[in-house]
Fold this protein.
Amino acid sequence: MGRNVGMKLNGKYRKPVLLAILASTLLCMSAIVLSALMISGSARGRTYTDVDSIPHRKVGILLGCSKYISGNYENLFFRNRINAALKLFNTGKVDYLLVSGDNHTRGYDETTDMKDSLIRAGVPSERIYCDFAGFRTLDSIVRAKEVFGETKVTVISQEFHNQRAIFIAKGRNIDAIGFNAEDVDTYNGFLTKSREQLARVKTVMDLYLFNTGPKFLGPKIAIGEPKLEASL
């Protein structure tokens, strides 16, 4: 008898559980699609792949990522972003580069890796400013305004990342355009691009639900004047 009662209960609750799972799945999918449309739409006409057509801006924000993945394998996202930043700087489309990345643990320092790569490629150190508190794209973009005083910038990353950065910038009254670094093939970029879908949902929530700000701000630093470095 107990077994029969258990089977009846399972049958009784199976349909509501399945409906709840279906509703949750549809909600998540809708959030992903809506966020993607909002973010890509906000950046329409504001990203460039041709260095000759992009307008000049004083500062280019180079968004950080790890130099290596899975041990000592080169991260193609990193290499391509460095190449894009060099192309902008060497053609005079930006005067300064603000390298913004994460260094939350000892031994992991996106910002210094980017700076060192740029210097080795010939960019003068006095034309590079470092933001070591760019823990997320939102932090990097908002700190460019609140710490470095820049409200008109060029963001440098892959197109999907530039779109999200421009969306954030619009929400914080920053005039941003993007220069698209060369993308990475599906095999090498699958995990990054998969995470991007969730990052877009979180970005929309951060801006419109939670009014999220950077983890840290700090003293003002004027780009183009005697140099300080932004730290924690």
The CA atoms of residues 182 and 218 lie 33 Å apart. The radius of gyration is 21 Å. Residues 2-42 form the longest helix (41 residues).
